[in-house]
Structures are given as C-alpha cells and as structure tokens.
Amino acid sequence: MKLIRTMAVLAGAASLMSACGGSSDDLGKELGLTQPQVHFIHAIPSGPNVDFYDNGKILQPNLAYKAVTNFANIDTGAQTFSYAAVNTTTQLASDTSITNAAKGHEYTVIALPDAGLLPSIAVIDDPFDKGLLSGSARVRGFNASANAQNLDLYLVAPGTDINTVSPTMAGVAFKNAVPATTQDSIYVSGGTYQLVATLPGSKTPVYKSGSFDLVNNADWLVTTLPAGNILSEVIPNKIRLLVAQGGNTQTPAIELPDTL
C-alpha cells in the first residue's frame, strides 16, 4: 500500500508539472531519482574539434567550437572528465573534482581557454533544486576570460540604468561560476532582457548585449570569453558572451553580439 501511495503522489506531481510546463525528467531530478547527467560545452574559439571523455571512454565525439551536447546519463561515483583532439588520445585537459556524482544532479563540463589560450577545463555541479511547480528560467554565469578575471554580470530589462541596480551575478572570477558549483542556478521570469558586464564594483560596461528573449523553463549558462580568436587579438577586459542552453536538444551555443 505504501508503494501504491508513493506512486500516486508521483503521478499527481507529474500531472501538475505537465500543466505548469515542467517535465517528468524535472520531477525525477528534483526527487533525486534519476541518474546523474553530464553535458559538454566546447568554448575554445580557436580550438580543434574534440572528443569528450568520461572515465577514459569517449562519451560524445567530434565536437566543434560552440557545441553543446545533450545531457547523457552517467554512473554515480567518481568521474574523470577530459577531452582530446579528434583522432588523438592525448588528453588536452582533465578534471577529477567530481568524486561522487549524485542522482538528480546535472554536471556541465566546459572546455575553455586558459592564459595564453591554452586548453583548460572546468566542471559545474548543479544540484537542480527547481521547484516542482516552477516555470522560471534558470541562469548561471561562468568566467572563461583570462583577460577579464573578475566580472559583475547584470541580467536586466533593455535600457535599464545599471547604476540603480545590483549585479545579478556579482564577482564572477576566472574559471568559476556564480552561483558557485554545488549551488543551484538563479531563477528569473521569462521575458526580454539584455546582459551587461562590468569590472567588479564598477558601473562602466565592458560589454553590453542587445535585447534577447529568455523563455520560461530555459536553462542558460552565460559564459564570458576573450573577444579575440588568437593571442595577438586578446585585449584586457575585452570579452564576448556565449550562451549555452541546457536540456535534451543539441542546440549550439549562441554568441550574443557586443553593442559597445
């Protein structure tokens, strides 16, 4: 009888999720029932196509710059994420920070340019603590710009005077996310926005996007990158913004043009 009651509660919650625009996958993640999942983002503008590895085996092959893979199920426990240029086995970068991948969690692995545009890697552990009835969009910032190692990010309505508001994601340090790894994303209502980046504590933009639509239930990782494709083009604090959309559709990342 207990099993039947539990199944009935889950079925009722799933019906509510569907009515509010959610999914059974969201329900399973929220309850910690689904296998841990990982997806990979290729964010090295001048980098070669790569194969993405998990624990020494290719999980997703032949990925180009701006590639954002579908989420793939992985085992619980320790994970070593890495990537190598296609048709090679020499790993360009690897990460062993995930010692116990947890059910219901999403992991994002980012290939990014380090100082000198050399290959590097970062991993974000997202506990996915979205409310069962929430239709809000999820947003997180990540700094992959070695030439702008600390930034404030503002997600605001177009034309907002940022002197009158606080940063949405403050103090985003190089190779770090805000909210930080192991913390949930921030939640905002769907609507029309723009993104503005400044140096910490400053209200002078170093980057300002045009307006864009952020829909309900979106799952965005906003990544800052050096504006140049080669080392000679890199200028201090000159950045670009790449938006990677999570989920189960393999949509390439979008580069938001800098209106400055």
From TrEMBL:
Record-annotated membrane-spanning stretches: none
Alphabetized UniProt keyword annotations: Signal
Signal peptide start and end residues: 1-18
PROSITE patterns documented for this protein: PROKAR_LIPOPROTEIN (PS51257)
Superkingdom: Bacteria
Pfam families in alphabetical order: DUF4397
Species of provenance: Caballeronia glathei
InterPro entries in UniProt: DUF4397
Statement: the UniProt record of this protein carries the keyword NAD: no
Name used for this protein in its record: DUF4397 domain-containing protein
Keyword Signal part of the UniProt annotation: yes
Domain DUF4397: 37-154
